[in-house]
Specification:
- The structure holds 2 protein chains of 2 kinds.
- Chain A is built from 8 helices and 20 strands.
- Chain A is of the alpha+beta class.
- Chain A has 2 domains: about 15-90 and about 165-235, Rossmann fold; about 250-365, Nucleic acid-binding proteins (OB fold (Dihydrolipoamide Acetyltransferase, E2P), Beta Barrel).
- In chain A, strands 6-7-8-3-9-10 form a 6-stranded mixed beta sheet, sandwiched between helices. Chain A has a 5-stranded mixed barrel with strand order 11-12-13-20-14.
- In chain A, strand 17 and strand 18 (about 335-340) form a beta hairpin.
- In chain A, helix 2 crosses helix 3, helix 2 (about 105-115) packs parallel to helix 4 (about 150-160) and helix 3 (about 120-135) packs across helix 4.
- Chain B is mainly alpha-helical.
- Chain B has a domain at about 50-125 and about 155-280: MetI-like (MetI-like fold, Orthogonal Bundle).
- Chain B has helices at about 15-50, 55-60, 65-95, 100-115, 120-130, 135-140, 155-180, 185-190, 195-205, 210-225, 230-235, 240-250, 255-280, 280-285, and strands at about 10, 15.
- In chain B, a hairpin with a 2-residue loop joins strand 1 and strand 2.
- Chain B is globular and about 70 Å long.
- The N and C termini of chain B lie close together (about 10 Å).
- The chains are: A alpha+beta, B mainly alpha.
- The interface of A and B includes residues 102 and 170 of A.
Chain lengths: ~375, ~290
């Protein structure tokens, strides 16, 4: 980025740049955010992921200073900013909708935060042009925002949000207004920009693919509570709750009863709904006789022509090019199974019986 | 934009420009018969009675009293516009942020005067401002003045009453404009380091310019031709153009001269509007593609 890029990005001793502590925000009787605590490391790309009403946007609004908590604390760079007005927090933000000022040129938009910081005209222009270059829009500086496409406008918004080297860059579903192809292109572009600038990013989204692709770590929220904060890989492969398992990616849930006590992470035998027996991994601490829900991802189930194991019959095959999704009727629920195009079993047709095979670590039992 | 703007859509059908014109015909007819025709006749009289002459127009400019009235009319109108804007902007801004019951109360407060006759509102000001009126009673009662003041028949009273009557015409378009500005602009500006005043100065104010312009133009034009309020509140020293025209027509039966006054006013307003449009350039403001 332009001049001033060497600005020190301070953090607390443990490398935490943004800290959210026991945040509570109520609207009437409803707690939109209910005791959320997490930290964002310096230079990290953190996604806040959750369904609508999960409180992810409220958390962001409190970090931004557009909303203030009923209790709890927000720290940025070790400073308590819980009650600091937003124009004094030195944060950058890209919004869901295009918020470029329509009466200013692209360049004036980008120079606006520098103007607010009383930086001289010449330096303002120079830094704004440099920022415009980093989002590959040089030559568009004299246009009005309305003369740019949606994707271009969001790139200008990004340039405007980073031109003053803010402490942290906040992004509130910045790509949700764009069409799918452009969105995927922009995801990569934002990721590159973030790496290039080394800026700490907090990115709110309800799109799990977006979160998985872009984020270093993802905080999954539901009903105002933090469900899990982990790397994309850990979230996908070892979700700690049935909600996360169901929310991230696709999952089959099979009700079952545990045969004995098991600590979280250990193997346990269960009786699946329908009467069959399987060995699974306990995601929670489980007691014998307790009802559980076994989660298995569609791509982790293999079909075998014979042998002992869980039996199921193909009900429907949904062809989608690179993969085929099979709906299988088991003795329990209907299961979804993903198979590649050149399965050794040929083209599975409705009515074909199979034995289902999975690795124990891929079947995770959650206390129901 | 691929749609041709000259085509008109209604009930899911597209109409040709000619058919669109047909829809506007009833209004255009009324405008033509009830307004343009009499105005044209009046202007014709100002130039062709008894035969072609610019004598009536010369008289407007030759006698200082008429120019004074015209100057006063423009001055009072400008003052009323300014006061309406200064009073109306904060009100409209507040309304734009309010929802529910409070908004309805404010809307009624703004609209109620519009639903009341101008005459009633003007008489209300007479009651307030007369020698033994509420305002004078209050001032003498509090001991702020020794004797009742002359409030009626002053330019201040005319400006005050006219501003009150015309306030809704600046509040309503401003409210509509301010309401349509998404909060996100102000939020973005604050995030970028703008304090409350800077947000107003650099974002809200420029974005509300269309509302300011249309409201001010409306108030200014209405004020130029205002009759009842200045005639009742003001005295001869506060005579405005409409009263002058009325005097010429009903008391002196001098139609050609009344026509000349109106002709001059019309040209002055047209000139002002052209200058105004050139300076503001509304169409350039938002910079459509």
């Amino acid at each position: 980025m332009a001049a001033g890029g060497a600005e020190l990005r301070t953090g607390t001793g443990n490398g935490e740049h943004v800290g959210v502590h026991e945040l509570v925000k109520r609207y009437g009787d409803v707690a939109a955010v209910d005791g959320v605590t997490f930290g964002v490391r310096t230079g990290e790309f953190l996604a806040l992921l959750g369904p609508s009403g999960s409180g992810k946007t409220t958390v962001l609004m409190n970090i931004a200073g557009f909303d203030f908590p009923d209790s709890g604390r927000i720290e940025i760079g070790g400073q308590d900013v819980t009650w600091t007005p937003s124009h004094k927090r030195n944060l950058g933000m890209v919004f869901q909708r295009y918020t470029l000022f329509p009466h200013m040129t692209v360049l004036d938009n980008i120079a606006f935060p520098l103007r607010m910081r009383r930086i001289g005209r010449a330096e303002r222009e120079e830094r704004a042009r440099a920022a415009l270059r980093t989002v590959r829009l040089e030559g568009y500086g004299e246009r009005k925002p309305a003369q740019l496409s949606g994707g271009q406008q969001q790139r200008v918004a990004m340039a405007r949000a980073v031109v003053y080297n803010p402490e942290v860059l906040l992004m509130d579903e910045p790509l949700s207004a764009l069409d799918k192809n452009l969105r995927e292109e922009m995801q990569i572009e934002i990721k590159h920009l973030q790496r290039e600038l080394g800026v700490t990013v907090i990115f709110v989204t309800h799109d799990q693919t977006e979160a998985l692709t872009m984020a270093d770590r993802i905080a999954v929220l539901d009903l105002g509570k933090l469900q899990q904060l982990d790397t994309p890989k850990a979230l996908y492969e070892q979700p700690t709750s049935a909600f996360v398992a169901g929310f991230i990616g696709e999952t089959n849930f099979w009700p079952a009863v545990a045969s004995g006590d098991a600590a979280a992470g250990s193997e346990v035998g269960v009786t699946l709904e329908g009467g069959e027996w399987a060995t699974v991994t306990a995601a929670d601490a489980i007691r014998g006789g307790q009802k559980v829900r076994v989660a298995i991802r569609p791509e982790n189930i293999r079909l075998s022509g014979d042998g002992a194991g869980v039996q199921a019959t193909v009900e429907e095959a949904i062809y989608a090019g690179s993969v085929t999704t099979l709906l299988l009727r088991s003795k329990g629920p209907t299961l979804r199974v993903r198979v590649g195009p050149d399965g050794a079993l040929g083209e599975p047709t409705p009515g074909t019986p199979f034995t289902l095979v999975w690795q124990t670590r891929h079947a995770r039992a959650y206390a129901a | 934009m691929t749609a041709r703007p000259s085509r008109f859509m209604l009930g899911g059908r597209t109409y040709s420009p000619a058919a669109s014109l047909l829809l506007a015909t009833p209004f255009l007819l009324v405008l033509l018969l009830a307004f343009l025709l009499p105005l044209g006749m009046l202007l014709r009289e100002s130039l062709f009675v008894p035969s072609f002459t610019v004598e009536h127009y010369r008289r407007v400019f030759d006698e200082p009293v008429y120019l004074r009235v015209m100057y006063r009319t423009i001055r009072i109108s400008a003052l009323v516009t300014l006061i309406s804007l200064l009073l109306g902007y904060p009100l409209a801004a507040m309304m734009a942020r309010t929802r529910g019951l409070m908004l309805n109360l404010l809307l009624v407060a703004v609209l109620l005067p519009l639903w009341t006759s101008v005459l009633v509102r003007t008489y209300a000001w007479l009651v307030l401002l007369q020698r033994n009126g509420v305002v004078n009673d209050l001032l003498t009662g509090l001991g702020l003045v020794d004797a009742p003041m002359q409030l009626l028949r002053t330019e201040g009273a005319v400006v005050l009453a006219m501003s009150h009557v015309l306030l809704p015409f600046v509040v309503l378009p401003l409210y509509a404009t301010l309401r349509a500005i998404p909060d996100d602009y102000a939020r973005a500006a604050r995030m970028l380091g703008a304090n409350g005043f800077a947000v107003f100065r650099h974002v809200t104010l420029p974005l509300s310019m269309p509302g300011i312009t249309s409201g001010c133009v409306m108030v200014f034009l209405l004020a130029l031709g205002f009759f009842v309020t200045p005639a009742l509140i003001g005295g001869p020293q506060q005579m405005m153009l409409a009263t002058l025209v009325q005097q010429q027509v009903t008391e002196l039966l001098n139609w050609p001269f009344a026509g000349a006054i109106i002709g001059v006013l019309l040209l002055a307003v047209l000139g002002l509007m052209i200058v105004f449009h050139r300076v503001i350039r509304l169409d350039r403001f938002v910079g459509q593609a």
